[in-house]
């Protein structure tokens, strides 16, 4: 069967056939180091690294570091770690700031050709002169400055002789252009802010539109992908490249990833972090790569997700359920099974010998002998889930009830005969009887039960904290509202269960980063801040879809 191509691959294949680019293809992933990577970036990474590997090309990692106030080098390290974790390696590591000198040279060249000028207008004046999509912009007297004057002024800007905002360098294109981006766009602004790489060498910094395309061209990037907001920037991208006679990089826009009930903007994620609503950039509730890793997502699941959502030209909101489906599918085949009891209720088996311990054999991965099995201790005192007991059975409740019976997974059938309550009427202990002839695998009891529940023996169980997560926001598209998105933050997005119990071997140190399925409860991973004295597990995902649209 012929594999269908996405529209970017179609463009690339056509360019290879024609051949437009004789050196082979080259892509780049250009993060701004002003925050951590999120799933939207993963989509872009999968696309760019995927194209390079499919067409035998190169992919550069380029830090788009032209806004010194918001950027710093700790983000650079985090970004590199995340890309590698996703399973990708770049051919070259570059920085837009490496091109500051070259970009300055391009600016001088455009001035000499009479198509760039220094403008003294304030930003308000510039905005006013720009017009509207219906009304053409107006020109000002600075537009007619001589080449020599412009050269001197640009040099003076570079030398720090002007304050922030006092002067800008603009391209002289067309103040009546129907595309607003072509109405004499700003190329450089004065900004007396030290840069994390160039220090205080520069006090003028290039704008995105003047830096990005030229950086692509310098690196001989053939296909430069970006999100749809940049469609209107494309004529300008091409204009600079053509005027300067540079390598003809091609900008291609695709739909950004939006995920329901979360946000995909670094700036907004930063606000959650800064306001202390989440536990840092790697909070397991965040759609950051670091957060998803801590939550227990796998690189494979994220790559599959990116593959499934595909690359299209229309914006849409992707259902969170698809991401969960991908991680479930991945973990189901690899995560060993263990038992945990999240909200424990004590069971005493009245007719079981106090001195006795039996070891119940359980497969680590059912149906996969290579993963072996383990012995889970069973005794007189057990923990079961509070949810697995109901004093008086509700309709369709088939688990344990007073007078009813249930199977303990991999062990015996028990029936509940007596309930102990505290002075407030809370159930604190169940007294049950077990049926010795009902042992799993050798059941001669003829007792019919409708349900199987999990359990742990009290002396063998290890205390742990378990964290369950829910959607980050209570509305589907929190990013839609610019200012009050924080008011939709879901305060119940984390549930911390302090009194859970887990099987003893989960306490071992070498389980860090290992994924488990806790029987009947979902997939879990030890939290990065977990330690032997205080075990913490994060739920990656439930076993079943529970994200039905609100
Ligand atoms: P943010 O708004 O989160 O800061 P950004 O686009 O400003 O995102 P950059 O670091 O500039 O972030 O982006 C690096 C690359 O990732 C760009 O090529 C950008 O198009 C791409 N990208 C960012 N967000 C998404 C998204 N939601 N879906 C797809 N690609 C994205
Ligand atoms: Mg950006």
TrEMBL record:
Keywords: Aminoacyl-tRNA synthetase, ATP-binding, Cytoplasm, Ligase, Nucleotide-binding, Protein biosynthesis. Residues 452-527 form the tRNA synthetases class I (E and Q) anti-codon binding domain. GO terms for cellular component: cytosol. InterPro entries: Gln-tRNA-synth, Gln/Glu-tRNA_Ligase, Glu/Gln-tRNA-synth, Glu/Gln-tRNA-synth_Ib_cat-dom, Glu/Gln-tRNA-synth_Ib_codon-bd, Rbsml_bL25/Gln-tRNA_synth_N, Ribosomal_bL25/Gln-tRNA_synth, Rossmann-like_a/b/a_fold. The keyword Chaperone does not apply. Residues 25-332 form the Glutamyl/glutaminyl-tRNA synthetase class Ib catalytic domain. Its EC number is 6.1.1.18. This is Glutamine--tRNA ligase. It comes from Parapedobacter indicus. The lineage of its organism: Bacteria, Pseudomonadati, Bacteroidota, Sphingobacteriia, Sphingobacteriales.
């Amino acid at each position: 069967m012929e594999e269908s191509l996405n529209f970017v691959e179609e463009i690339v294949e056509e360019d290879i056939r024609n051949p437009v680019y004789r050196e082979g293809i080259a892509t780049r992933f250009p993060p701004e180091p002003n925050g951590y990577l999120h799933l939207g970036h993963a989509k872009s990474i999968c696309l760019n690294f995927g194209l390079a590997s499919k067409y035998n090309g190169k992919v550069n990692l380029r830090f788009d570091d032209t806004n010194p106030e918001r950027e710093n080098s700790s983000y650079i390290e985090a970004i590199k770690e995340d890309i590698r974790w996703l399973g990708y390696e770049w051919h070259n590591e570059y920085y837009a700031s490496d091109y500051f000198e070259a970009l300055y040279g391009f600016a001088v060249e455009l001035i000499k050709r009479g198509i760039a000028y220094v403008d003294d207008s304030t930003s308000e004046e510039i905005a006013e002169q720009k017009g509207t999509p219906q009304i053409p912009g107006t020109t000002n007297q600075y537009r007619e400055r001589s080449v020599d004057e412009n050269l001197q002024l640009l040099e003076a800007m570079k030398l720090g002789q002007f304050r922030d905002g006092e002067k800008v360098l603009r391209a002289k294109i067309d103040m009546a252009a129907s595309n607003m981006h072509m109405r004499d766009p700003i190329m450089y602004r004065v900004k007396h802010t030290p840069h994390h790489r160039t220090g205080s060498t520069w006090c003028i910094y290039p704008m995105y539109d003047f830096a990005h395309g030229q950086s692509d061209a310098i690196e001989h990037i053939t296909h430069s992908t970006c999100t749809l907001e940049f469609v209107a920037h494309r004529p300008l991208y091409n204009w600079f490249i053509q005027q300067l006679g540079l390598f003809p990089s091609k900008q291609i826009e695709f739909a950004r990833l939006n995920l329901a009930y979360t946000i995909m903007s670094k700036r907004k994620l930063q606000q959650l972090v800064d306001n202390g609503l989440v536990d840092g950039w790697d909070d397991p509730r965040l759609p950051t790569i670091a957060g998803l890793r801590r939550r227990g997502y796998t690189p494979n699941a994220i790559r599959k997700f990116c593959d499934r959502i595909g690359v299209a030209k229309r914006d849409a909101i992707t259902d969170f359920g698809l991401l969960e489906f991908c991680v479930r599918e991945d973990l189901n085949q690899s995560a060993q099974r263990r038992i945990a009891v999240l909200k424990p209720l004590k069971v005493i088996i009245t007719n079981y010998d106090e001195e006795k311990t039996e070891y119940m054999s359980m497969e680590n991965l059912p149906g996969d002998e290579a993963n072996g099995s383990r012995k889970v201790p069973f005794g007189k005192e057990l923990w079961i889930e509070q949810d697995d007991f109901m004093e008086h059975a509700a309709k369709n409740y088939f688990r344990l009830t007073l007078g009813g019976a249930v199977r303990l997974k991999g062990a015996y059938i028990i029936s509940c005969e007596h309930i102990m309550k505290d002075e407030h009427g809370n159930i604190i202990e169940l007294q049950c009887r077990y049926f010795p002839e009902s042992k799993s695998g050798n059941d001669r009891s003829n007792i019919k039960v409708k349900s199987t529940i999990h359990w742990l023996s009290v002396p063998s169980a290890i205390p742990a904290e378990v964290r369950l997560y829910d959607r980050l926001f209570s509305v589907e598209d929190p990013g839609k509202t610019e200012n009050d998105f924080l008011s939709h933050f879901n305060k119940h997005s984390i549930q911390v269960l302090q009194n859970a119990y887990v099987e003893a071997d989960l306490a071992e140190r070498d389980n860090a980063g290992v994924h488990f399925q806790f029987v009947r409860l979902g997939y879990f991973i030890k939290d990065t801040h977990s330690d032997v004295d205080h075990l913490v597990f994060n739920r990656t995902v439930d076993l079943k879809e529970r994200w039905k649209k609100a």
